[in-house]
Backbone:
């Protein structure tokens, strides 16, 4: 199968406008005859479901949470980028496009990124009109802050809760459509299979998490907006129920999975305190504006930080990157922390942490100023660790935060299964090998409010499908498939906890497929993962039954999928012998230890086709062409 | 640390429930309260016993999913903190801790500590929005909003919809939840057009869901993890009176 990205012709700045005109429309009276299934209610899912409802489509919207308002987009802190140029500092659509392609280390599709930058300005207008209380200046205009990877101030924010406010805005629009009966909402439902009829996505099988029943839903098209797969690492900043199941099951039905090895690690998280830990908490990157990162110069120096004199400290970021210092991008900061820990210079009980020290800033600016700037973060740190960062340096360590890879989509956000569209973090399209801060919210909302409402109409108008019911054989087969997996999970009756196996998978992934990957470590993981999968299916204990709320059963199903998906992620990492963005292959670095791309051999999207559990998937390549932004080596020295 | 736990177990919405005894061994002070429960559950799971059902998701205090009453207090003993951010160093070795679900007629128990809060969604659906479709918005800076007004709207918009206010109220009133949304939108220029229809529709919906009235005791404010003050309720009442008078 040849991958066709369906990028419209013409100059980059005109592609989307031309495409909008060229696309077919569904006339208003006919829209209600079409049913669109939307899975997920985060920024992408809620905005898509609400917008399609507004247009008049018949929308069925599903989420695993008890309310659509709780999707994990809610936890995003920092902000959302938009090329408004309200600050008069030289921003433009072209500059946001340029920064995003460069920040993604030249592994994204130019046309998609340009459209994202164009739509960014509409998102802010839309959200303000909904009543999103973005921060403002005294004159009443919107305020902006600057963020990593950009030299302009283009980030809009609502205190440290931007994701929450944007999601609540989308959720309110969604509930308005639910009230108008344009959208039918199904909470506490988990998608367990995609139903494909005559080669087209026509429905889904979901488990009603309260009654345990398997339910079937039919539609004319399916949209997945089910988020990323960070919890394959067990510990991450993702919510504990975030999972890859919907994407993975769609992958098994023919949707190609693109660039799964592009995972993002955030440098400033609170370190792990013990085996009991269920998730990691992110501290805003802003802290690196005033905090200085250091470790002891001597290996195994276990003295408490105040006893280590200045000359025995290594402020390694300032030493190695004199011009960016503590403000180097996420991947660089993360890798250097790991390097320090690997050298035995990590701090804290586990040795898996580095110091982020505010002593100089407090002396320079006074504790009051620091409190005003970072009070809530210091308080959060204190709550979790019981240490006072005004007195002792914070301990931080990198953690998995976001996944750039996802289901492959074309310019219309359609996967390789006709009719199956994928939005937000669940698709692979816009961030290349590394996402810039404040760009995830932008992408989720651009996809949902402004892209899919156009492209889904084009698909529906061009692809009339016969009327079918959920009694169709394909539905029966898919429901049986889901039922079989549930039965299998409940009959193992082994003696190992689900969490224990997930934790072990996480350790394999973090140690061997984490921040720094080598040929040997990846091959080691490819040995270990199938073994652990075997162990799972022979020795996992899933108590309870399938006919009521059974959180153990839900969790076991998600871990089972991760045990298959982890292998694909690792295989992709092994195949990509270059370093790019969040993917660092130790074999591919510059003499001074920076990530080195190999544009001659790897300037492509790796899209994998499922060939069976444990079987080698088939690699399809979408070559990446850069007509506007010319690939160069990133340097932050 | 070792703790004695008394945990509410209930098989389903109509089944009778009761408090059952459990022990949590080797509890580390660095654990969060929910991680302590994870460990108890892991112990049950390897023995093939049904795990204790409880809701949680982000575990950083923003999604509003977690919902436990600890020793009679919604979200437990720390002020301005969701239960997922409560840490075990707050408890003493040998202590007995009682864990129950939110209790309110409008929040029926689904299983054990999990309740159904969809009534909150229906209240928002009744009017907690600005009626604007995607695509029709003017430039975001066309309407100026004074910083203090915007900040006040943000204070109210910080509500996470967890329902602790209802759980703490002896009348199981949803007034703090509703008033936070009504304040958020009625403070902003964008919310003016539907100001009065919104407040009546939301209050009518809450009444039909079986939430009680407000008797001004402030229990809701005391347990709110986002410390949303009851002055919001005063604003909502004023809006409601204005709405009635303007009819």
Residues:
């Amino acid at each position: 199968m040849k991958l066709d990205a369906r990028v419209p012709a013409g100059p980059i700045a005109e592609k989307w406008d031309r495409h909008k005109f060229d696309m077919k429309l569904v006339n208003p009276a006919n829209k209600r005859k079409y049913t669109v299934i939307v899975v997920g209610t985060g920024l992408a899912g809620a905005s898509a479901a609400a917008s399609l409802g507004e247009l008049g489509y018949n929308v069925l919207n599903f989420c695993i949470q008890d309310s659509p308002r709780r999707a994990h987009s809610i936890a995003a802190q920092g902000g959302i980028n938009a090329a408004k140029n309200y600050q008069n500092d030289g921003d433009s659509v072209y500059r946001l496009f340029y920064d995003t392609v460069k920040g993604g280390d030249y592994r994204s599709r130019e046309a998609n990124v340009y459209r994202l930058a164009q739509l960014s300005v509409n998102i802010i207008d839309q959200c303000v009109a909904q009543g999103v209380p973005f921060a403002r200046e005294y004159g009443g205009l919107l305020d902006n802050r600057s963020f990593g990877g950009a030299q302009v101030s283009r980030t809009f924010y609502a205190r440290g809760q931007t994701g929450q406010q944007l999601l609540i805005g989308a959720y309110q629009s969604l509930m308005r459509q639910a009230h108008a009966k344009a959208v039918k909402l199904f909470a506490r439902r988990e998608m367990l299979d995609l139903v494909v009829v005559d080669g087209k996505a026509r429905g889904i099988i979901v488990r009603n998490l309260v009654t345990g029943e398997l339910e079937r839903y039919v539609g004319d098209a399916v949209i997945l907006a089910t988020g990323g797969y960070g919890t394959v690492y067990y510990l991450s900043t993702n919510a504990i129920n975030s999972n890859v199941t919907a994407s993975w099951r769609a992958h098994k039905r023919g949707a190609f999975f693109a660039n799964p090895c592009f995972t993002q690690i955030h440098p400033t998280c609170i370190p792990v305190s013990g085996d009991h830990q269920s998730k990691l908490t992110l501290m805003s990157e802003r802290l690196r504006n005033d905090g200085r990162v250091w470790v002891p110069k001597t290996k195994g120096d276990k003295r408490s930080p105040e006893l280590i004199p200045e000359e025995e400290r290594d402020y390694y970021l300032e030493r190695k990157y004199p011009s960016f210092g503590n403000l180097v991008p996420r991947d660089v900061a993360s890798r250097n922390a790991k390097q320090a820990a690997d050298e035995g210079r990590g701090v804290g009980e586990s040795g898996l942490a580095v110091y982020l020290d505010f002593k100089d800033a407090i002396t320079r600016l006074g504790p009051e100023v620091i409190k005003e700037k970072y009070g809530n973060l210091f308080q959060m740190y204190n709550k979790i660790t019981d240490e006072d960062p005004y007195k002792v340096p914070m301990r931080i360590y990198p953690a998995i935060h976001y996944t750039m890879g996802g289901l492959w989509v074309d310019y219309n956000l359609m996967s390789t299964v006709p009719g199956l569209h994928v939005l937000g973090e669940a698709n692979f399209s816009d961030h290349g090998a590394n996402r810039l801060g404040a760009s995830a919210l932008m992408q989720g909302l651009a996809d949902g409010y402004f892209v899919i409402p156009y492209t889904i109409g084009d698909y529906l108008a061009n692809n009339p499908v016969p009327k079918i019911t959920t009694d169709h054989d394909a539905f029966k087969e898919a429901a049986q498939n889901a039922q079989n997996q549930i039965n299998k999970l409940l009959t193992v009756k082994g003696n190992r906890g689900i969490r224990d196996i997930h934790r072990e998978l996480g350790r394999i992934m973090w140690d061997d497929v984490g921040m720094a990957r080598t040929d040997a470590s990846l091959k080691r993981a490819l040995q270990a993962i199938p073994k652990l999968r075997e162990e799972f299916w022979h020795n996992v204990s899933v108590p309870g039954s399938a006919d009521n709320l059974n959180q153990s059963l839900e969790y076991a199903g998600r871990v089972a999928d991760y045990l298959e998906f982890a292998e694909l992620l690792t295989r992709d990492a092994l195949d990509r012998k270059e370093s790019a963005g969040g993917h660092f292959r130790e074999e591919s670095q510059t003499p001074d230890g920076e990530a080195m791309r190999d544009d001659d051999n790897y300037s492509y999207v790796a899209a994998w086709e499922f060939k069976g559990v444990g079987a080698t998937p088939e690699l399809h390549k979408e070559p990446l062409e850069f007509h506007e932004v010319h690939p160069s080596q990133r340097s932050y020295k | 640390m070792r703790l004695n736990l008394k945990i509410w177990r209930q098989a389903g919405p109509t089944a009778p429930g009761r408090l059952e005894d459990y022990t949590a061994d080797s509890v580390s002070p660095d654990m969060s309260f929910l991680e302590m429960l994870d460990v108890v559950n892991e112990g049950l799971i390897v023995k093939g016993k049904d795990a204790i059902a409880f809701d949680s998701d982000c575990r950083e205090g923003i999604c509003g999913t977690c919902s436990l009453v600890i020793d009679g207090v919604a979200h437990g003993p720390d002020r301005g903190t969701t239960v997922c951010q409560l840490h075990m160093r707050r408890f003493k070795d040998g202590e007995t801790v009682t864990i129950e679900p939110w209790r309110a007629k409008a929040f029926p128990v689904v299983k054990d500590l999990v309740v159904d809060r969809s009534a909150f969604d229906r209240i928002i659906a009744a009017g907690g929005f600005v009626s604007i479709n995607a695509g029709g918005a003017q430039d975001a800076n066309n309407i100026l909003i004074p910083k203090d007004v915007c900040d006040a709207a943000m204070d109210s918009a910080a509500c996470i919809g967890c329902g602790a206010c209802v759980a703490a109220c002896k009348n199981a009133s949803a007034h703090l939840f509703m008033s936070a949304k009504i304040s958020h939108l009625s403070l902003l220029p964008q919310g003016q057009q539907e100001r009065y229809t919104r407040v009546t529709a939301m209050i009518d919906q809450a009444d039909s869901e079986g939430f009680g009235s407000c008797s001004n005791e402030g229990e809701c404010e005391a347990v709110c993890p986002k410390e949303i003050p009851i002055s919001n309720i005063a604003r909502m009442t004023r809006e409601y009176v204005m709405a009635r008078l303007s009819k």
Remarks:
- DSSP finds 17 helices and 20 strands in chain A.
- The domain at 473-602 of chain A is CATH 1.20.58.100 (Methane Monooxygenase Hydroxylase; Chain G, domain 1).
- Chain A has three domains: 15-262+404-462, 267-399, 473-602.
